[in-house]
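hey can u check if this looks right to u? its 483 residues, i copy pasted from the old doc so theres a chance i mangled smth
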Amino acid sequence: MCGFVGMVGNGAVAAELHVGLSALQHRGQDSAGIATMSADGARFFMRRGMGTAGQALRAEDIDALEGPIGIGHVRYPTIGRGSLDDTQPFFYRQPGILMAHNGNVTNYLALSRSLAERSIHLLSSCDVEPALCELADALMGERKARHTLDDAARALASMLERVRGAYSIVAALVLDGQPTLVVLRDRSAIRPATIGRRPDGAWLAASESVALDTLGFTEVLEPAPAEAVFLRAGCEPIRRTLAGGSPAPCIFEHIYFARADARMGGKSVYEVRMALGRALGARVRDKGIAAEVVVPVPDTSRPAATAIAEVLGLPLREGFIKNRYSGRTFIMPDALTRNAALRLKLNTLPSEIRGRGVLLVDDSIVRGTTLRRVIGMLRDADARSVHLAIHSPPVRHPCFYGIDMSTEEELFARRFSGSLLELERAAAVELGADSLTYLTVEAMDEAFGGARCGACFDGAYPEPLSDEDRRNIAGDRRAAHPT
């Protein structure tokens, strides 16, 4: 999972791209980069580094990035080793393209073999690079120079046919003699992307609407499945449908990954989490679970916990204080790092916990290690009982589309068999909780409304995956990030 911004305007864009990346920092803390292009496409500028946007890109880096068009990226690796070589954006010399993406290219190894047969060799293990190479190769096949928008549309259609998986892509290049920003989504529009306009004629594309809000852009559209949108400063967007497709946006974005103030697919992430909480609250009530206070695990679960407290008529309390300078433990690369980060991230408020029956609310259980520690912290603070409520269904299947849970053995819910009630009872014992209540898939769908990808819950993958693709992705994750 990553975050990107792309901007085309009338002046230098690097500083604003850096601000946009800061708004998307929750989507990746491993590395960051910005690349820009001169208006005539004759010169390209790039700065990349490890860590957050503030750590990777200094003031002197921003000053060196010239041009009225560019793209930025914050990375959390789900394919590749997370080295500087894998840091986005990427650049291809012929015909001169900058590119970044969010998601997973599932047939990375097959693409690398195919490209090698055409004497095109990859320099990284980042899965955006073969997509960039496929686009550049197809575009050069159209003509050698002075490429048009129609050339690019055909080349993008060729790339979309070859490159499988779930991804949103942003690219910058010269078309029809003009600096042009291109945004493309996969056939199922699994990964998010949105586009906004500003009164000065500038356009901004981003993984989440929060980047638009931060920079004063008004959201105009979200690219449809298999649609490319071409953006030029002061001009109306040009939209091209490249193939057939049906939307299946990732519901885990709404459950966990996106910022609560984001809008995706016309839905408020905050309101979706509230709806999930109301549905979960009804199930907790129907099970007859007795608690005295509702406590969210900061910060993602707070909207759902608020709704649960309203349904149950219980007080909502902050049982944990979060260190605002710590990272998100779910996207830490290994178990040791996640455990150390959690100790820095959360501290209990014993006065809100001592002697009380606590209903602890969290968004999901992937590996279970974090929640086991959190429950232990409540026990240490003398909670009388700890009942766990999760505002998503059990994560039973790997995600191959960009969320870091691509191996079966790391998934907590797969350890248990039987009905949902039997799973909940056994899992509660394993976690050290008095009870566990998940949201059902049916209740999740009713609360969310509309099409979605929830393959991690129900195993229904909207984008095709070969057995080889599954093995390769899982193997890559095991090698790069041992648990």
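The chain has a mean pLDDT of 93.
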